[in-house]
Design goal:
single chain, alpha/beta, Spore Coat Polysaccharide Biosynthesis Protein SpsA, Chain A, seven-stranded mixed β-sheet, two-stranded parallel ribbon, 8 helices, 9 strands, 40% helix, 17% strand, Glycosyl transferase family 2, glycosyltransferase, transferase, Glyco_trans_2-like
């Protein structure tokens, strides 16, 4: 039984999805891929289904009606992956901002003892390509802010390139994960740490998308800014079982 599944949420990613799938499915390790498509009007799902004919046992797709948020897409995928008994469950963007070759390094970090491996832009300096300095500074200081509020020792708190061991996602009550944008990535790391799981950062180089449209918005940043405070306050009144 293959042990690794890569979850990729998509919305209008026709320019990227075929290249991404061909790359991931050609890696030395036998990665499976689960696409969560939120009704992309550009035909992303149709491209995936065409490629699926060549990889019927390795490529899967779950289609949802309309944009429902990044966090809900990952929660949907996590539940699917846990149900299907994958040992290593990955988050990855569809736009090549995450290098598929790094999947092997994230998995190895979990094999060697991490419960969650985070592809980190900031653990060894600032490793971001093609972002304007204003966005680099916003992202970097967002992580500084999160560390200050929550007390967690993670340099890249908003990172969305991760590998979870299945036991982490089985332990966390996924129905209680609240946020859908940047704050979702923060909440998952914070909740894993509060449960006593070992979170390790693996240095990566993040390259901003060259084709397609970014899904970032001021609303996502606002959710993260306010959500971190709410999350910290709520955690004071919540008991976390050990992982």
């Amino acid at each position: 039984m293959p042990d690794s599944i890569v979850i990729v949420p998509t919305y209008n990613e026709r320019e990227n999805i075929e290249r991404l799938l061909n790359k991931v499915l050609s890696l030395d390790h036998d990665f499976h891929v689960l696409i969560i498509d939120d009704g992309s009007p550009d035909g992303t799902a149709q491209i995936v289904k065409r490629i699926q004919l060549d990889y019927p046992d390795r490529l899967f797709i779950e289609e949802r009606s309309g944009k429902q948020g990044l966090g809900t897409a990952y929660i949907h995928g996590f539940k699917w992956a846990v149900k299907n008994q994958y040992d290593f469950i990955f988050e990855m963007d569809a736009d090549f901002s995450h290098n598929p070759d790094d999947l092997i390094r994230l998995r190895q970090a979990c094999v060697e003892g991490a419960d969650v491996a985070v592809g980190s832009r900031y653990v060894s300096g600032v490793n971001v390509v093609n972002w304007p300095m204003s966005r680099v500074m916003m992202s970097y200081f967002a992580s500084v802010y999160v560390r200050f509020i929550t007390g967690i020792d993670i340099q890249d708190t908003t990172a969305g390139f991760k590998c979870f061991k299945r036991k982490v996602l089985e332990t966390i009550n996924l129905n209680k994960i609240k946020f859908v944008g940047y704050a979702f990535q923060i909440e998952m790391k914070y909740t894993a740490i509060k449960h006593g799981f070992k979170v390790v950062e693996v240095p990566i180089i993040f390259t901003d998308r060259t084709v397609g449209t970014s899904k970032m918005s001021t609303g996502i940043f606002r959710e993260a800014f306010i959500g971190v405070i709410q999350m910290k306050i709520n955690s004071v009144f919540r008991k976390y079982p050990e992982g």
